[in-house]
Amino acid sequence: MRKSEVYSWRISPDIRSGLELEARRAGSTLAGLLDRIAEEWLETRRSGAAADDTGQASLHAVAARTLGAISGRSARRAERARAAIRERLERRRDR
Question: Each residue of 50-86: pLDDT tens digit?
């Protein structure tokens, strides 16, 4: 793969020496090792995105069961939801 971008950042000397050691053990250069690490990380993030969506959906379902509902007989209850939630939270905090 042809590389055309340069990125630089500061790291501690301990981390750099550890990375250089691992690159030598792998028979690679430091740049090659960092490139492989970045590629693997991106692949993991991309493949985990679908799992994260599923996980988020299940978390939302669990949270929805525990949140409850605002009770009242007002037809305009939804319009006042923010204020009603804040009132409830303030009452809980004052306990």
Answer: 666 777 788 888 887 777 665 667 777 777 888 888 8
- DSSP readout, 1-42? ------------HHHHHHHHHHHHHTT--HHHHHHHHHHHHH
Between CA 38 and CA 26 the distance in angstroms is 16
Q: Torsion over CA of 68, 71, 81 and 79, rounded to 10 degrees?
A: 140
Q: Which residue has the tokens 């996980």?
A: 55
pLDDT at 27: 96
Calculate mean pLDDT across residues 37-53: 81
Structural domain boundaries in the chain: 13-53+69-94
Quick check: 56 and 64 in contact, CB under 8 A? no
